[in-house]
Amino acid sequence: MKGLTIKELKIGDKASFQKTITETDVYLYAGITGDLNPAHINQVESEKTMFKGRIAHGMLTAGLVSAVLGMQLPGPGSIYLGQELKFTAPVRIGDTIKAEVEVIEKIEDKNRIKLSTTCTNQDGVEVLKGTATIMPPK
Question: CB–CB of 115/22 below 8 Å?
């Protein structure tokens, strides 16, 4: 299984992945990373925050972008070099998040592409936006 090369990629190419965030996802992510912030795992404490309840880790949401890049566009064999991102709204347990990427720039002499990265919830609310830099497979 091999992803698309820089010659095969075109400006405007898009791909997406969608997942419903579960309580199990949040607890597994907390355990793997050690991020046990009460905003994610303690209902009583999280209700005292501006979010009035538990939210998913921002980087868990960003991980959905990584899934699109590594598995679809450009796909297997690509190297994730960088990501600028902004968390624009909270993700709650039970939200269905769509991660979408779009090729916005090709730097052929360096074998690099830039992609816009966006995550939206089931209501169409943007929860993450940014730009990724990727080295597609040769």
Answer: no
